[in-house]
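### Sample
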Amino acid sequence: MNKNGGDILGLRRRLLYITNFADNTVEIYNITNPIAPVRVGEFGAEDLSDPIALAITDTTLYVTNFADNNTVEIYDISNPTAPVRVGEFGAGDLMLPSGLAITGTTLYVTSQDNNTVEIYDITNPIAPVRVGEFGAGDLSVPAGLAITGTTMYVSNSGDNTVEIYNITNPTAPVRVDQFNEGNLDDPFSLVIIGNTLYVSNPGNDTVEIYDITNSTAPVRVGEFNANDVFGMAITGTTMYVAITLANIVQIYDITNPTVPVPVGQFNSGNLNRPSGMAVFLTI
């Protein structure tokens, strides 16, 4: 979610951005009623090539161009239903970028073919500056990223693990451990709410659930079935899960975060291999 604050007297609305991998677009849904999304637009047809991941900081949206371009596109979402492309970056640094995460003024981008995570300074959010990379020797086809505090998780889809890094110094991550517990198969997307980490597990058609009260020692506490699962996003007590081959997004109530309850799904006829998702809170 973007870094804007919470609802003010209930006047804010929520939007969900969903990458449409096969159509080279990003779909926009109003999720003010989180279990009844309403499509309000799309963008990117002229700019995107196999888009997967998204990340938001304030009114700047980043979208990875996974295959042909190996770049990240930058959009101004001051008008959130009519994003305006303002640049791109990563050419020459990235190879199959598939995951994004932001902490402060630092943006991380997974580079699958390089087995690294690239690090960018986004003090100027529309002009990222590469400041380093990490993971060479530890990572194997890194896919997704998630951050809580000074801990970063990186899904290692080539090794069926999730790597754990300390990012107290955000430009010099230090590896501290990894986990699997025998339940991960091609782990991809990661999302965190409170002390719960969800890992999409397309190799087993599940989402794995971990308690990260101790952020460097996750404990598996459950799973739920999700065929062809890919990206995930959370707002409040609602979780969205992209079921990519079925071209739908499933909706779960996570009031009890270890026991998600399905409450619906949607498509509107416009999703074609939905992949990554991001929630934006606006007035």
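The mean pLDDT is 94. This sample (YncE family protein) is used throughout the tutorial notebook.
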